[in-house]
Amino acid sequence: MIKNRIKVLRAERDWTQEELAKRVGVSRQAIISVEKYKYTPSLELAFQIAETFGVDITDVFEKVKED
Fold first, then answer.
1. pLDDT tens digits, residue range 23-67?
2. Which residues are in the HTH cro/C1-type domain (predicted)?
């Protein structure tokens, strides 16, 4: 499973899902789906999200083992 910190990073910047979506160039629904683990982003989208936040991709996404 790929965990993410998108919601936390958005909150730190006081960004809505809509604002992040516009900055990244995707729909708000795409951001919601990634945040809620319903959709694993492509590598390109993952890097784009990290770049938008101004952090390394590993600061946004982390692979964790499922029990």
1. 999 999 999 999 999 999 999 999 999 999 999 999 999 998 876
2. 6-60
Q: At what angle do helices 28-35 and 6-13 cross, to 10 degrees?
A: 120
User: Can you tell me the mean pLDDT for 12-32?
Assistant: 98
DSSP 13-50: HT--HHHHHHHHTS-HHHHHHHHTTSSPPPHHHHHHHH
- Token code pair at residue 5: 């910190």
pLDDT on residue 37:
93
H or E element at residue 53: helix 43-53
